[in-house]
């Protein structure tokens, strides 16, 4: 476990004057003058940062978990800010061009998103739980839903520091084209996927199989392509011609597609390359795996992205040369953000483990019940080619995620939702899919709204209180829609 360097926030008096006073002296503890480089590194000068806003709830990270947390908190009456580093909301759904959703059978915001995707003609080939969606309409939908709920949101803004008042997270710092800005909130929710805010605040965390070292699950860069005649590619497309998205058909299509890539002279780095029919002649291409990359190492993620993009272009060019149904196969866009399966998991007041999956655990403070199985993408290309998905040596039963796994252990006033909640490697390989991320976000947002408005900490709010409010709110939303 790595604890990131933390500076306790001492300048509470400064809040009333509208500035964060980071205690400063011209000579640092190792004797280096501020603004100078020594053997110990560059000593960054301290400065006052204006407080840009005071909120009831701040949500960091606008992926599936983050948008749900922010919408839920704002609907609960909390003054809510959502901060996202990318140029759109949606995280893996949009910036990473995912196009497929698992475990989406929950009430509340998942239902609303499903209904509105249908209205936008952006959802196809569905079971109750799983379906294909179009990523571009999803961007617009999430912006509209946040605005309608009264969420204030910022794009192109990264959370870069966090400060505590005693043990309570009170201020975070962001960086953007506006420079460094400080923000106060009563409750913060970390939905950055990689647990950035929690780590900055000094909460404990694990990555991969534990501690701070990978092996981690491989990353994948997705891409969109247009084809001349989607019908001519039918046998290579997952969930093309069926009312129901069947996994059996997906496996068959993926095998046939892999044969074609091999016929084009390439062995793809992902053992189950996939083509999803998004809409009309638009398809999504998931053909690549980047192995053993650490999500919190920018140089490694950059290298993975460059290699992945090169592989996707290579495969597309060579498929095109096969002619026939592949003639005029054209890449439209590779994703802005490589898809990250495995980042930091923040330590919480409860840790969801493999044993919970084996016994199908039930908890009184259950916020959601994942059904998606353990999905560990093999850690190297050789294994991946033979057996792409590993199941962690267990047969899982649907299990509960308790609210306690969404409340940070070491830092007060901090919650988390989505990929970065408190769980072990195996459990994370199941609950990480987006239906669960949305349900966790919605629950965290409700608890944060109640806590912030009643001056309590999240652990002092009984789940029943939030559940009751969620039920009432859902009824009123469905009545008015
Ligand atoms: C290749 C791939 C395929 C997958 N396949 C499926 C599938 O078929 N179906 C399915 O349901 N799930 C699938 N998943 C899993 C799922 O997409 C993720 O686990 C899910 O997106 C988790 O949601 P999240 O909101 O926790 O995180 P993310 O979607 O990762 O969102 C995190 C957000 O936080 C932002 N952020 C990060 N750091 C900061 C910061 N410091 N400051 C501000 N913002 C920040 C990011 O830009 C991002 O928008 C897949 C994942 C990958 C990578």
Description:
By secondary structure, the chain is α+β, with helices and mostly antiparallel strands. The protein folds into 2 domains: 310 residues, FAD/NAD(P)-binding domain, CATH 3.50.50.60; 112 residues, no CATH class. Helices cover 30% and strands 20% of the residues. It has 11 helices and 23 strands. The strands form 7 sheets. Strands 1, 4, 5, 9, 10, 11, 12 and 23 form an 8-stranded mixed beta sheet that branches. A 4-stranded antiparallel beta sheet has the order 15-16-14-17. Strands 6-8-7 form a 3-stranded antiparallel beta sheet. A hairpin with a 6-residue loop joins strand 7 and strand 8. Helix 1 packs parallel to helix 3, helix 1 runs parallel beside helix 10 and helix 10 crosses helix 11. The longest helix has 25 residues. Bound molecules: flavin-adenine dinucleotide (FAD). The site of flavin-adenine dinucleotide has 35 residues, from helix 1, strand 6, strand 10 and helix 10.
